[in-house]
Amino acid sequence: MMKTIRYIYWQDNGMWLGHLEEYPDYMTQGETIEELQENLKDLHDELTSGRIPGVRRVAELRIA
Question: Which of helix, strand or coil describes residue 44?
Answer without folding.
Answer: helix
